């Protein structure tokens, strides 16, 4: 069970708000508005520790004083208030009347809006109408940076997610057999994750041979002997997402599938080998891609065949991308997955990766699942 004791809650809440307000002071912000549309609720969860379901929500954090939460869904207001981190709540309507009243009372000179890029025009206009002389800036990076450094409490949640990842993958392997539709395989995994307490799960899959170029939602395709079945499964536990990337073969792996695994495993190891506090996402991606370049597969590292070489984890399932050109610094206590998932002509699209937390001396892999090319049925030692 999650530790929701008064002492743990108070310490975690104080840590988060102290971190956020320190960042606000550095940027000269009098007010922070953390916006959360229906598909991006990570900032609302970070500041309220409440699971909301409305189409839009906001948490207003003044430089001094108590925060206020707003949601388009009345039921969310009770959920947020009951959780106790933000006790003042109000309905969020298209005109933002309650929000504008509060902003007028605060009379800020400088307002930062996290996810300002996604803010509906009606709410953006409500803010500028309420405080027409205030400077309004994006604060997306402020909260991204604050959430990147995980507390002990957060790492405990993510270790729970890691255990559920491993259990989900074990179920995936256990039910693999010829003739099974992809959607049945995913349904079995989803049922296991929910049985273990997952709030949600993001999962992609692909099955087949060297013609497979990427993953999708499950289809009705029936698994065949010799198929390599690739997946990334990403359960959410108490708000925190974590991902495992693996591939398995229905039956015995071919020489090509084994060679593909060896290539991808070397790339994972190369990415992990450079992880330490202060490394950049760019440097991790370069380490992975250089393995492909070494063997003549560099063209498969670009946008034509792949998206990223990993990404951050936390209250959002797909945080800072591990990709060449992204010079975001990965500090101690950042959590992300190293996964060089891409297509090559060796055996088609391959999926392999482990989530890690950056430690003072390097990294810690958060899952215990073996990094091997799984085969089914697996031989049992005598």
Automatic annotation (TrEMBL):
SUPFAM superfamilies: Creatinase/aminopeptidase, Creatinase/prolidase N-terminal domain. Residues 16-149 form the Creatinase N-terminal domain. InterPro entries: Creatin/AminoP/Spt16_N (IPR029149), Creatinase/aminopeptidase-like (IPR036005), Creatinase_N (IPR000587), Pept_M24 (IPR000994), Peptidase_M24B (IPR050659). Pfam families: Creatinase_N (PF01321), Peptidase_M24 (PF00557). Signal peptide: none annotated. Residues 157-359 form the Peptidase M24 domain. This is Xaa-Pro aminopeptidase.
